[in-house]
Design brief:
- The chain is built from six helices and five strands, in the order βαββαβαβααα.
- The protein is an alpha/beta fold.
- It has two domains: 137 residues, Rossmann fold, CATH 3.40.50.360; 33 residues.
- A five-stranded parallel sheet has the order 2-1-3-4-5, sandwiched between helices.
- α1 crosses α6.
- The longest helix is centred in the C-terminal third of the chain and has 23 residues.
- The chain starts with a strand and ends with a helix.
């Protein structure tokens, strides 16, 4: 198989992006599967999706990434806090670090994603105790995240796939 999209999604955000990535991939030699349902599917190029869990991905995803060898791997994910580019680069570094060096890392696409209601409740409780600008910023970021992934995010995911495919095609020609 040429392409395999493997993802994990807690609230449906990453699944939505995974479906767009799968739709953008060319040809018929491709598949999409959640990490929880992954059996023995293999591919030359993987698009691996995760949801941001405190600056990285879940343990199950770390284990999966560590198990890949000699593959081309592109990462994608959803984050509730999207305003800080340094933080997003840190998330990418934290997750890509689980890939073995014998893989070819093709880059990472991150976009916003809705957060669960328990997080807003936590922020509101913090605000009730001490209403600081930082807590108001977190609440504002939560509210903004509720609008993602949106159509622009999905189009950016498609662009990411096309740029990865251009890179892979150039390497095959060389």
């Amino acid at each position: 198989m040429d392409y395999l999209v493997v993802y994990t999604s807690k609230t449906g955000n990453t699944q939505k992006v995974a479906m767009k990535i799968f739709e953008t991939l060319p040809g018929k030699s491709k598949d999409i599967v959640s990490l929880e349902e992954l059996n023995k599917e293999e591919a030359d190029t993987y698009f691996v999706g995760f949801w941001n869990n405190r600056g990285t991905c879940r343990t199950e995803m770390m284990d999966f990434l560590s198990s890949l060898h000699g593959k081309r791997v592109a990462l994608f994910g959803t984050c509730g806090l999207m305003g800080n580019s340094d933080y997003l680069k840190q998330v990418e570094r934290q997750v890509s670090a689980f890939l073995s060096e014998d893989n070819e890392y093709l880059g990472c696409f991150l976009c916003g994603g809705k957060l669960g209601p328990a997080i807003l409740e936590k922020y509101r409780q913090m605000q009730a105790v001490n209403d600081t600008p930082q807590i108001r910023t977190l609440i504002s970021a939560y509210e903004d995240a509720m609008l993602h992934p949106n159509e622009k995010d999905l189009e950016n995911a498609s662009r990411f796939v096309r740029s990865v495919l251009t890179l892979v095609t150039k390497e095959k020609e060389e």
